[in-house]
Design brief:
The structure is a single chain. With about 625 residues, this protein is an alpha/beta fold. It has three domains: about 10-150, Resolvase, N-terminal catalytic domain (Rossmann fold), CATH 3.40.50.1390; about 155-300, Alpha-Beta Complex (Hect, E3 ligase catalytic domain fold), CATH 3.90.1750.20; about 315-540, no CATH class. Helices cover about 50% and strands about 15% of the residues. The chain contains 19 helices and 18 strands. The chain has helices at about 15-20, 30-40, 65-75, 85-90, 90-105, 125-155, 180-195, 200-210, 215-220, 240-245, 290-300, 365-385, 385-400, 405-435, 440-485, 495-505, 545-570, 575-595, 605-615; strands at about 10-15, 45-55, 75-80, 110, 115, 165-170, 170-180, 255, 260, 270, 280, 320, 330-335, 340-345, 365, 505-510, 525-530, 530-535. A hairpin with a 3-residue loop joins strand 17 (about 525-530) and strand 18. Helix 8 (about 200-210) packs across helix 10. The protein starts with 7 loop residues before the first strand and ends in a 7-residue tail after the last helix.
Length: about 625
């Protein structure tokens, strides 16, 4: 290689945080002094410094390094001088590619402490030095990671800065305390979500009120990763930012560690599965209570809550589901100008219509809401009248629902215990036979292993069954939880989204008995929180009321029969056929009139279009 002394000599310096933690003595200033001295001593006075301070050698998007590489590609740099090869990078494959590119560009590479100068040809040991440099970065990363893991497993915060809503305690940097200003914003976001607002709507409200985005707020406090960034839109909240805050378990007062993982080369964070998180509860003051958190995530777990055509979000959206396919029902407004809200199964409208779910299960939202209100009133009245009776009914309901499962589970436990006793007896006999010489040692060991495995399996089955039975017992206790919730409310005339999501789990709508009929029955199951589908006991009507209802039903059926009889007579008569013929004639005349007034409803003809653009006609 013949050096080009007329081009610029690049002096490249780099220092990473890892080097500082490992006690690296060569700071940026010391590296500059070393490289300048070497360049002057060898007559290279046309030099220029390129440096990266605090950036890892496993990254190759370093500003100083990229500026130097651009100069090499533009033909402005003829020589590169570094302290050693590790300053170029700690990825031996990338460093090898850089060396090959410098050779092709006829750029001289000098690594002072590695005694390498490319003008003298290839150095056989240099690839091994590059591998050792990468190994050093990997080993350093492993040591730092083990330090963080030990800290995180001890329940301490491993994040460099607190989440939005908290700040570090000035007296104890390991402790988080509530940032009152940001905490109010977090509470507002959760409150608006419970009220039915979506992330985008909340973001626009915060922007309108000129609330600083989290990055700007943390910047003002001296935290975060954007200390030197200038924000052009400090109040522009994104819906994704609101969503991110709604998923923070830290607001419950918990420490959540190891949600992300970094590789020592790219330094990029990658989210890991939630099962790998470490959660330490009640480590700092909560901002959001657990009840609100559960309601928010129940709402977010339902279908998206978009406003309807009048800009309103119906509180039932996401709670009403199809009883047949289980999918949430979508909100539809009427086309007659009335502000009525109907719900239709989401699967029914999928193309082709009716293939996924056979019917639409259409129901009026107002009717469902009134049914929920009345049912809650009846439950509250029943609770006020006989609270003990309500709880006993809940326990009886759980027992009735799982009666067969409980009986089978108990039988299984009794059978397993009996078999365990038999195995113990067999062990005693086997031991005696082995001592007396009736059973060889090899056979004794084989049978022992077989029975040990069976014992372990039986004990495991008993443990799992007992867990299931304990779950049934927990369900009986859930009735008290629902009782505590419904006692908070005395009036159900207006149901807020918060009340609905707190009291109701889902509402399953069945198809109507007779579609298209003025009088029909439609079954609706209301599943309440903690107690499931429950219908409060109704008072039996007195004999006079029963007789009145029976008479009304008889009259209604007689009226239906008469209507049907008149319709069938009309169908058989000539009047119906005459009406059909007249209707078809009017329809055809209307279509002919429209065609005459607008012969080409889809626009101008092809011939007219060709004339306009001057397209030559194709010869036949």
């Amino acid at each position: 290689m013949k050096p080009n002394n007329n081009l610029t000599v690049a002096l490249y310096e780099r220092l990473s945080h890892d080097d500082e933690q490992q006690g690296e003595s060569f700071s940026i200033s010391n590296q500059k002094l070393l490289l300048e001295t070497y360049a002057r001593e060898h007559g290279m006075n046309n030099y220029k410094h390129f440096f990266d301070d605090g950036i890892s050698g496993t990254r190759f998007d370093r500003p100083g390094f990229m500026a130097m590489m651009n100069g090499i590609k533009d033909g402005e740099i003829g020589t590169v001088i570094v302290k050693d090869m590790s300053r170029l990078g700690r990825d031996y494959l990338m460093v090898g590619q850089i060396q090959e590119m410098l050779r092709q560009k006829n750029v001289r590479l000098i690594a002072i402490n590695d005694n390498h100068d490319s003008i003298h040809g290839d150095d056989d040991l240099l690839p091994f030095k590059n591998i050792m440099n990468e190994w050093y970065a990997k080993d350093t990363s492993k040591k730092i990671r083990s330090t963080f893991q030990a800290k995180g497993k001890a329940g301490k915060h491993v994040a460099s800065s607190p989440v939005y809503g908290y700040i570090k305690n000035p007296e104890n940097k390991e402790e988080w305390i509530v940032d009152r200003e940001a905490a109010e914003v977090v509470k507002r976001i959760y409150r608006r979500t419970v009220e039915g607002a979506g992330p985008y709507q909340i973001a626009r409200e915060l922007e309108a009120d000129k609330i600083d985005i989290p990055a700007v707020h943390l910047q003002k406090l001296g935290f975060g990763l954007h200390q030197k960034v200038k924000f052009d839109e400090p109040y522009h909240w994104w819906g994704s930012t609101v969503t991110h805050l709604l998923d923070k378990r830290e607001y419950l007062g918990h420490t959540v560690n190891f949600k992300t993982r970094k590789h020592f080369k790219d330094k990029k964070s990658h989210y890991v599965d939630e099962s790998e998180w470490l959660i330490f509860e009640n480590t700092h003051e909560p901002i959001i209570d657990e009840e609100t958190w559960n309601i928010v995530h129940r709402i977010r777990g339902n279908c998206k809550r978009y406003p309807n055509g009048w800009g309103e979000v119906n509180p039932l959206t996401g709670i009403v589901v199809c009883a047949d396919c289980g999918r949430p029902m979508h909100q539809h407004r009427t086309s007659n100008g009335k502000r009525e809200c109907n719900y239709v199964c989401a699967n029914y409208s999928k193309s082709p219509v009716g293939t996924v779910c056979p019917t639409g299960h259409r129901v009026k939202g107002e009717a469902v809401l009134e049914l929920v209100k009345q049912t809650l009133r009846d439950i509250r009245a029943y609770v006020d009248l006989d609270e003990e009776g309500f709880l006993k009914e809940m326990e009886k309901g759980v027992e009735d629902e799982h009666r067969d499962e409980i009986i089978l589970a108990q039988r299984k436990i009794d059978g397993n215990n009996k078999r365990l006793g038999e195995i113990e007896s067999l062990f005693c006999r086997m031991y005696e036979d082995n001592i007396l010489g009736k059973l060889p040692d090899s056979r004794y060991e084989a049978l022992s292993k077989q029975y040990d495995a069976e014992q372990e399996r039986l004990r495991h089955e008993i443990c799992e069954i007992e867990k299931t039975l304990a779950g049934f017992h927990t369900e009986t206790k859930d009735g008290k939880k629902f009782l505590n919730i419904i006692k908070k409310y005395d009036n159900f005339d207006e149901l807020t989204p918060y009340m609905l999501n707190e009291l109701v789990e889902k509402i399953a709508v069945h198809e109507r008995d007779r579609k298209g009929s003025r009088d029909t029955t439609q079954k609706i199951d209301i599943y309440f929180s903690f107690i499931g589908c429950y219908v409060p006991p109704q008072e039996e009507p007195d004999p006079e009321e029963q007789a009145r209802l029976a008479e009304e039903l008889t009259k209604r059926e007689e009226w239906k029969d008469k209507c049907h009889e008149r319709y069938m007579k009309y169908r058989k008569s000539g009047k119906y056929k005459a009406y059909e013929k007249s209707y078809e004639g009017r329809r055809r005349a209307l279509m002919a009139e429209k065609k005459a007034n607008n012969p080409n409803p889809y626009g101008i003809s092809i011939a007219e279009y060709r004339e306009q653009i001057g397209e030559p006609k194709v010869a036949k």
